[in-house]
Amino acid sequence: MTDDGVPVHIIGAGPGGLATAAALHERGISTVVLEKSPSVGASWRAHYDRLRLHTTRRWSALPGLPIPRSYGRWVSRDDFVRYLESYTEHHAIEVATGVEVDSVERDGTDWVLHANGGRRLTTPVAVVATGYNHTAHLPPWPGRDGFEGELLHASRYRNARPYAGKDVLVAGVGNTGAEIAADLAEGGAARVRLAVRTVPHIVRRSTLGWPAQANGILCRRLPTRIVDRLAARMAKLAVPDLSDRGLPRPETGLYTRARQGAIPVQDVGLIAAVRKGAVEPVAAVESFDGAKIQLADGSSAAPDVVIAATGYEQGLEDLVGGLGVLDDAGRPLVHGARTHPDAPGLHFIGYTNPLSGMLRELSLDAHRIAKSVAKVTA
Length: 378
Ligand SMILES: Cc1cc2nc3c(=O)[nH]c(=O)nc-3n(C[C@H](O)[C@H](O)[C@H](O)COP(=O)(O)OP(=O)(O)OC[C@H]3O[C@@H](n4cnc5c(N)ncnc54)[C@H](O)[C@@H]3O)c2cc1C
Fold this sequence. Notes:
5-stranded parallel β-sheet; alpha/beta; 27% helix
């Protein structure tokens, strides 16, 4: 308990919220996790079927419970959901499901969480863990709403079955777009184009058993230009030149790009598919015109389906937008152990996207938050 006997309220029962609850329990502080969905790990339950963690089993485990060895090195979506369920049970985390927090407000020294059903929950310490990938982002492409084909965001993609025999254009080449394009090509789509605005850095998930994530962890303390140079050398050794297929190597360094928020694409089938011509990189989508799509190089396409792998927004404006704790991009100005000077006792977890792996960082931040809360409430 906090010193006045009220549990810490955590918003969101994904890996970030659950990790924070476990870390607080370890310090004798009780929690209640408020989750809008019917169960924990809602984001993971909704991901596409073939998804496996890109980070290793060991470096994806949350505080206080390893991921079972039997789940393998690259844990599948379903096994990760199973892990989150057993994690909740193992740490006896109290999760109130079906509770959606709409806004957070200051009331004296307390935080008031307004939730669905007119609920009003008061707590001295609140942790926001509603997810980096909270709200699907669909660009406002001109003519988009009049598209005569099918347009969906990647968050609604499950597997290639509905697209067998169809001409599909995937817009956006982050990890999700790259993997969906490969999945479609392997799953029988008639044609798969991948619309690329900025060519990505592509890395092997592991090279001779050495995971890319290990590089991400090691590199964090090195100067950007050195990492950029090392990464370029590594890419030349491990990743074939795909320029003639429309995917040249990027001119900006890998770490420079990562610091701007663009993490590299881990290859789980894209390289082979592009080399075979099963996935065709094309220019970025500019606009829609009836059945046609205008691409940035002046060419056009008329696919049956467009899958927009165009990322997510954090959706924090409604929740905490009035508190002065967000930057211009809608991300928290401070996260982890630190709280904003105008918002003591209000923590954020999970709003960065580091090269070292988000799950690993969530675990570290959960411990930091617990330590800071324990200090304040001691
Ligand atoms: C496709 C994909 C693959 C990824 N793979 C990896 C990987 O391999 N390794 C890695 O380290 N990271 C990976 N990540 C990044 C990250 O680890 C995950 O997104 C992870 O789920 C983040 O955990 P979270 O708890 O911050 O957010 P989420 O898992 O999104 O959990 C947020 C929770 O909050 C709930 N919620 C939201 N709003 C409210 C509200 N207002 N009130 C109540 N509840 C609310 C949601 O229902 C959800 O359960 C991946 C991300 C994606 C999208």
